[in-house]
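Summary for the lay section of the report: proteins are chains of building blocks that fold into shapes. Here we show the chain for Flagellar basal-body rod protein FlgG and then a coded description of the shape we predicted for it.
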Amino acid sequence: MKALHIAATGMRAQELNVEVISNNVANMRTTGYKRQRADFQDLLYQNLRRMGTTSSASGTIVPTGVQIGSGVKTAATARIMSQGNVAPTGKELDVAVRGEGFFQIDLPDGGTAYTRDGSFERDANGQLVTIDGYTVQPGIVIPEDARDITISAVGEVQVLDANNAIQVLGQLQIARFVNKSGLEAIGDNLFLETESSGAAVVGNPGDAGFGDLMQKHLEMANVEAVGEISDLIAAQRAYEMNSRIIKAADEMSATTSNLR
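The coded shape description reads as follows.
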């Protein structure tokens, strides 16, 4: 009975849906996390009576036909790149992007990754790095005796030196993408450029098409607890309904088997 296999695809789809939701909930407090959504498509159809064919010698056209579907499949786990809430932290090396743009990060293999997580630190050499020690492009070094580190909305990094003079250390740049949902997540709050995302377009914060920066703030995850709970309940009910279909199909098969 096809209903068994069709309902099984529905259960598998909702199982994956719950996995996506659970990952969103697990990352509710992850800085710069972007939630995902499971998208589904129907599977191939069996045409028992094809629409548009003739049904008589006079050329009568079949208006609808008879098609039997074979279930559902997961088409994508789309990443929702909307802005998360920006929360104050009071830490001078915490920076949030407000609007379009990603910080550029140098990877150990020489590649470039991108992140919305602006919780930066200084390494032993004064270099501006991520919490994993990866260098933030374009490589800003903060002197040991520097005071009152200021990162402006347009990305200019300034400090007061030992003589209380303002010293400009460099300019932070950010990157944006034509299709930022096409970026590949690799963990550690990092993304990689792909063919789907398109090439990175680099510019200064505040330029046309780019967001600006907020020092002493961090962008929170864009996960909404109420929405995730609602989605979880809907997925649970869909899973339950598919399991009932399997049970009903099994009972129908048992009835057929018991016929004398």
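Put simply, here is one thing we learned. The longest helix spans residues 225-257.
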